[in-house]
Amino acid sequence: MPQRNLVLFSTTMVVLLLSSIVLTQAQPRSWSAFQASKELATKLSRNPQTFPHASTDYGHIVHKTPVAIFNPSSVSDILALIHFSNSLPNPFPIAPRGKAHSVHGQAMTKDGVVLNMTNLNSSFQNGLGVLVSACDGKGPLICYADVGGGQMWIDVLHASLERGLTPLSLTDYMYATVGGTLSNAGMGGMSFRFGPQISNVLELDVITGKGDLVTCSKEQNSEAFYAALGGLGQFGVITRARIPLGPAPTRVKWLRLLYNNFTAFSRDQEHLISFSERNDIATADYVEGMLLLNQPPLDLLFYPASDHQRVTSLVTQYGIIYILELAKYYYNNSQAHVNEEVAYLLKGLNFVHTFVFERDVSYEEFVNRVYPLEQMLRSEGLWEVPHPWLNLWVPRSRISDFDEGVFKDIVLKQNITGGSFLVYPTNRRNKWDDRMTPITPDEDVFYVVDFLRVAKTFDVVDKLQVQNKQILRFCNDAGIKITEYLIGNKTHQQWVEHFGPKWKLFADRKTEFDPKKILSPGHGIFQ
Ligand SMILES: Cc1cc2nc3c(=O)[nH]c(=O)nc-3n(C[C@H](O)[C@H](O)[C@H](O)COP(=O)(O)OP(=O)(O)OC[C@H]3O[C@@H](n4cnc5c(N)ncnc54)[C@H](O)[C@@H]3O)c2cc1C
Ligand SMILES: *[C@@H]1O[C@H](CO)[C@@H](O)[C@H](O)[C@H]1NC(C)=O
Ligand SMILES: *[C@@H]1O[C@H](CO)[C@@H](O)[C@H](O)[C@H]1NC(C)=O
Ligand SMILES: *[C@@H]1O[C@H](CO)[C@@H](O)[C@H](O)[C@H]1NC(C)=O
Ligand SMILES: *[C@@H]1O[C@H](CO)[C@@H](O)[C@H](O)[C@H]1NC(C)=O
Ligand SMILES: *[C@@H]1O[C@H](CO)[C@@H](O)[C@H](O)[C@H]1NC(C)=O
Ligand SMILES: *[C@@H]1O[C@H](CO)[C@@H](O)[C@H](O)[C@H]1NC(C)=O
């Protein structure tokens, strides 16, 4: 089998290559330890088919070529890799990689090893797939799924739906991995109600940078648990997460309400998220929002073709339209009630009254709503293009200043086309635990603001990056205390400023769990 020999040959090459790069002051003992570990060597790859993928991400702006890709088939493989790095006088960095939907090189390393978490799916039977448990009927009913860190949320959804269940808090996009979103926060239109995805975890298995496999939760090894949640991959590799599940609705009323007045728009959004825990009827299940700018291409996919003309006219008239997007779930047997519930929700809202649009879709079609868009963009060659995104959390008290200074001034006036813009409030109070790693604006409610930019050419990338900097400078000058989300490619000093008063806790946790600073170098926090 010549192909097999080739593979063996190339892995030997990788081992030699790795040794020459990382073992600059190597002692013979550690090198022979690696050679002795044949298991490790056969899982390292520089397969020319996949290697280029490991040197880029969804952003397509930052590129770093690793020494090799490690394809683990078990948790013990990951343990062995981390132990090996730790054993060297000059340890090599390890970058866990989910689906690399990061946009600033967070899952890359230029002189280390990319740890391919999605390869774990092959050992489904070892508990690294998705295992939906029976619901625990004693005490409060808790259903959950045990999920491998490299699984995608779409797979968690499918396995859960088979049992009539669903995760409670989902992001807009279902093809990111569980380990990837839990290393950031996982925000979406359900977060106002259940919190971000990191607030919806019962238990984790984490392999720390020191090489300890730790099972952790609020009660057990809680320091490792809170550190890993939103931990940017700095403290450990998440190999398993226990995700709580609730009953899955069958169908969804999915609505968009158009506004020409930001004050009315944000006031209505805030009204919808200030729900009462006890009054289900009066509660939306999902609330987001977005801008419709007088810029090509106008995204009119949601609206019936017969309405495209009048939506376009509205946008042309005002230059900027705000869309409040909301959803109300229902089951087949409550079909008769759902229209009443929706009418109740819309009562007193101040959208432009003839501009309300509604679709009735299956639950899966709703939560997987980005997928058809992805297919369309892929077919137009507009998916694997540069994405100079800017993702911000803005304190509620300053969102109107943000609208005036950023949307209506910088964005509208510069009129650089490409991408979409999301803006929606979420509840911090009672939904976030400050022991988790991320920092947030210091208010009970803050806004998620996403500039999901798509650049067809590098000339546009530059323009958009300049605009991103202008937006940050505007916030700084106006004293709007924003928090950046999904950031990377920052200097150490910028990270210290990002965490502010929480920096000491962050750095102490690094010393405790990853003292040799091996994990997730792509953020540039400790390198
Ligand atoms: C189209 C699109 C829509 C999106 N929508 C949303 C949204 O609505 N809400 C939201 O919050 N985010 C959203 N995101 C951002 C997304 O959640 C993050 O980019 C996330 O990191 C993607 O997961 P991934 O598996 O691709 O992670 P990767 O990019 O592979 O990794 C992200 C970081 O986590 C680390 N990491 C990965 N796996 C593990 C692990 N198992 N253990 C420890 N560390 C690990 C990596 O080293 C890296 O630092 C969106 C992204 C895209 C492309
Ligand atoms: C990352 O930093 C480099 C060097 O500072 C810069 O050239 C590049 O544009 C940055 N990329 C992003 C996505 O910010
Ligand atoms: C990671 O592993 C998966 C599954 O084996 C494979 O499809 C993918 O190409 C690998 N990724 C990289 C960057 O090698
Ligand atoms: C993971 O494994 C399961 C079970 O073998 C399979 O159904 C699923 O399609 C796999 N997912 C991926 C992303 O390969
Ligand atoms: C926008 O809405 C707010 C709140 O309903 C209202 O007070 C204000 O007058 C409106 N502005 C315009 C220009 O209509
Ligand atoms: C933005 O530019 C496009 C042309 O690229 C133009 O059609 C549109 O009217 C402009 N919008 C604004 C608000 O200036
Ligand atoms: C709900 O209705 C759909 C379509 O009418 C049907 O396929 C499905 O089986 C029903 N589900 C339940 C739980 O009754």
CATH superfamily of one domain: FAD-linked oxidases, C-terminal domain
Q: Class of one domain in CATH?
A: Alpha Beta
Kindly provide the radius of gyration, computed on alpha-carbon positions and rounded to a whole number of angstroms. Answer: 24 Å
The major β-sheet equals: 6 strands, antiparallel
Helix content: 25-40%
Could you say which overall geometry the principal axes of the C-alpha atoms support?
globular
Strand-pairing-aware structural class: alpha+beta
Family: Belongs to the oxygen-dependent FAD-linked oxidoreductase family.
Keywords: FAD, Flavoprotein, Oxidoreductase, Signal
GO molecular function, one term: oxidoreductase activity
Cofactor: FAD
Q: How is this structure best described in words?
A:
This protein has 527 residues and is of the alpha+beta class. Among the domains are: 123-247, Uridine Diphospho-n-acetylenolpyruvylglucosamine Reductase, domain 3, CATH 3.30.465.10; 251-484, Vanillyl-alcohol Oxidase, Chain A, domain 3 (3-Layer(aba) Sandwich), CATH 3.40.462. It has 17 helices and 18 strands. A hairpin with a 4-residue loop joins β8 and β9. α14 packs antiparallel against α15 (458-477). The protein starts with a helix and ends in a 14-residue tail after the last helix. The protein binds flavin-adenine dinucleotide and 2-acetamido-2-deoxy-beta-D-glucopyranose (6 copies). One 2-acetamido-2-deoxy-beta-D-glucopyranose binds next to loops.
